[in-house]
Specification:
The chain is of the alpha/beta class. It has twelve helices and 20 strands. The structure holds pyridoxal-5'-phosphate. GO terms for molecular function: alanine racemase activity; pyridoxal phosphate binding.
Amino acid sequence: MSGSAFSDRADDERDAQAVLTVDLDALVANWRHLAARAAPAECGAAVKADAYGIGIEAAVPALARAGCLTFFVAHASEGRRARAALGAAGLGARIFVLNGFHPDAAGFDSYRAHGLDAVLGSAEELRAWSEARAAAGGGRLPDAALHVDTGMNRLGFPVEDARFLSQAELGSAGITLVMSHLVSAEDAADPINARQIAAFDHARERALRAYPASLANSSGIFLPARPFHDLVRPGFALYGGNPTPGRPNPMLPVATLRARVLQLRSVPAGATAGYNGRWTADRPSRLATIALGYADGVPIGGSGIDGRGAEVFVDGTACPLVGRISMDLSIADVTHLPAGALAAGDSVEWLGPHGDVDALAARCGTIGYEILVNLGRRHRRDYIGNGTGTA
Ligand SMILES: *Cc1c(COP(=O)(O)O)cnc(C)c1O
């Protein structure tokens, strides 16, 4: 059983048509860069959605070895995976579950057993969490963050409600952190940043004053107002996304996705490519068929239609996609490459040092976050670097 499973995996790895390479040293370097910027505030890490698609089991231990002590996930199930990945070495690390506390069968007991802290975003959640803590009796109980809504209108206590929580209410919930989330931090000129910063201060004038606070996501770490408080919560920038759109990306790329060229063909002017013939060659063209489609996380919005669409890179040279992206395949126009520059079996870069995640997303009509979290599950994953950042 295990023998055949092993050989199947070996075959899968050998004939992989696309390879996702995750550079853990780059991940750690990005975390250190953000931590240095935000110091003396603590730097945590958002590792929700499988660490933005790069893999929670690899990302969490690498960040923990670098010194990260506070992790944020969206679901308790992700928290349990993060806790397992931390292992014995990460006993001191906190894992906050952002989506709130919604007691169900496993509910509080699972938070307790796996060392997960809740992020409480309403009076109902606060009450249910406090009652569960009280019912649990003694021993080590999980703590919680209080989420204040300063403008997102999504999760969190209204500012005026948060202001008037009592010390008894905060104490029985085990509150150790007060947090809010920025609406438009990537746009430093948006006046909502200042309004949220002021609202968060206002929320913390009374009972919440004594508690550690956290407001900034990745882009918040680059706001001139430096709203770092005690803890920052970067996600996207850790994984190579640009926290300062419109300015050079200060982060290192973490994920590189390369896929194989399956075939090359020459077509005459007037030939179409792909489903529904949505692209027509305006000259004799050389086309490369690439083993990468929307099932691999390539958004169909990146199709090469009407002069728009995404690109792949051959030794750094951009080659536009042509026609509609298929489930498992896409087609690139490689007419401009020198003869012999590309052969069947070679691999091309979709995402990576040339295929910048934000530029790529713009060409696909989406955002870099969505590109990362949709990285496919069927390509081979190679984790490189030891996550200690020494190289
Ligand atoms: C996702 C998330 C973050 C991280 O945001 P990035 O923009 O990816 O840095 C921080 N805080 C909360 C509440 C989040 O939901």
